[in-house]
Design brief:
The protein is of the alpha+beta class. Strands 1, 2, 3, 4, 5, 6 and 7 form a seven-stranded mixed β-sheet that branches. The chain contains three helices and seven strands. A hairpin with a 5-residue loop joins β5 and β6.
Length: 124
């Protein structure tokens, strides 16, 4: 069966992942996928593998971030709230996950640009 041998990209906790070729739209070649993975490492994401499932994750500013490197022109970033231990859960004012992107055209200050987008879209 195809799903057991090809990589499945997970995009969040408990979220069903997808195949590289299962991405709607233009997806990356293997070489471009390797470039995107290096780009993610450069901004603090780590690759997690379990069997044929892979995810790219990072903690940032009180959030869990999951990256989807499959799109050809950008890396999609899914932002999920991180539970605060010992704190009363506050009402979330907007739906999660928040979807942001990191365009391939970004060349400098990727860390700051990513943090700025999180502040903007997560209303911090």
């Amino acid at each position: 069966m195809r799903d057991r041998t090809e990589l499945i990209f997970d995009i969040g906790p408990g979220k069903e992942g997808g195949l590289l070729e299962g991405f709607a739209g233009s997806y990356r070649s293997q070489k471009a996928l390797e470039w995107a993975e290096e780009r993610l490492k450069g901004v603090g994401f780590t690759r997690h593998e379990e069997g044929n499932r892979v995810s790219y994750r990072r903690e940032m500013v009180g959030y869990h971030l999951y990256a989807d490197p499959r799109p050809d022109t950008r890396i999609n970033i899914y932002v999920y709230p991180r539970e605060k231990v010992g704190m009363k859960r506050k009402t979330i004012q907007f739906p999660f996950p928040v979807l942001m992107d990191m365009p391939n055209t970004w060349k400098h200050d990727l860390e700051e640009k990513l943090a700025s987008k999180i502040r903007k879209y997560c209303h911090e």
